[in-house]
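SAMPLE LOG
Freezer: B-3
Tube label: C17
Construct: single chain, 498 aa
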Amino acid sequence: MAEAQNNQEQQQDIGQLLKVRREKLANLQAAGKDPFQITKYDVTHHSTEIKEHYAELEGKTVRIAGRVMSKRVMGKASFCNIQDLPGNIQCYVARDCIGEESYADFKKYDVGDIVGIEGEVFTTKTGEISVHASQVTLLTKSLQILPEKYHGLTNTDIRYRQRYTDLIMNAEVKDTFIKRSRIIKEIRNFLDGRGFMEVETPMLVSNAGGAAARPFETHYNALDEDVKLRISLELYLKRLIVGGLERVYEIGRVFRNEGVDTRHNPEFTLMEPYQAYTDYEGMMELTESMFRYLAETVCGSSVITYNGMEIDFGRPFEHITMNDCIKKYAGVDFDTVDSDEAAKAIADQHHIEYEDRHTKGDIINLFFEEYCEKNLIQPTFVMDHPLAISPLTKKKPDDPEKVERFELFINTWEMCNAYSELNDPIDQRERFAAQDAAFAAGDEEANHTDEDFLNALEIGMPPTGGIGYGIDRLVMLLTDSPAIRDVLLFPTLKSTGK
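STRUCTURE (predicted):
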């Protein structure tokens, strides 16, 4: 009862404060000082720039702009803290310097208001670099109360729903997204330096292929056709390889109608490069070099820390086949298993659940997920997957039950998936037919026959290596973020009230 009463009183207090803010805005507008009529403010410096270059800027006039995060009014002089993109800086505002009327207005400003301040750079008696204001301009009146006023912004659901407030209140959140932008920039720099061309391919497709996932479906009114949101970038990028664009990549959103957890979001960013005249070994070299480059360039070291554990990108990445990995961690040698029935019998012995339609290849993958992934901490290339779970990949010439494919695992996570791309149109048609059969048997994530893609392969695709990287998961790793929602500005959330 007492808690409910306190909450009610608190809401009444907040309501009164919000009312006061609107009254302040109305008074400003009545006095011809409407901040929303201001269209621009010429900023000359940011907070960190002033602090880093104090020796050159001391005594010089600067113009800064940002949000008022705190304010101390002391009679004829006041201090406020202004937050801009890179940081924050203290400002000293005195009545005798900005004028009596302006100072009276300033005293009515609220935490959360956005202001522009012109003044000289100086150091206070306590040694804090500050700006001595000669002019203060209210640029935006905040009509809401920043959350730390009462509770702080710790509720994760509110943080994700109101990311704009999260960015204001939590500096480390802003830093994460600045770093994300830099990671993507450096990926582009790396690939551009290797002669890759960035391209864009359709998001709305008639056949969502290239991955094992359920697509989102919608209807295109103008054409009166049902279409899907893409689940992968692969099949269109391979068409471009057919067309003679020998090195291409795309960074873009893909959409998979699946669950949400710490490493999965239905809408996420995928990056896929494709390179003609190379194979999965070439893609391993590219991947290892790119991850090492990103760690050194963005994080400043080839050794990073995630959740208190060191990940070393500086040493050569480990290479192990999927079957050898299972043998190492589960004690089962699937190279000696010669049938689907035998594989299922071994699965029964190890209490691995499977479906009737599953083959030996599917059982191998289930064993790998159960026994191996949790042990792969340092960068490890897991190679040579079963043919049954790799419908777009070239077979190994010396072992046609396996394919030339690898996944990179770091911190137990799959970081990328790569192939020597299948370019035999006859074999590809047979693989698509097997996928159609799997879908008919209940596999909602199976691919479907794509006739136009088969036509492209019949025209001729050179030997090609390709990779798919989950950019969000990579950003999680390089920013030491615990969940994918922490690296998505606006993650998928259930609508409020439902």
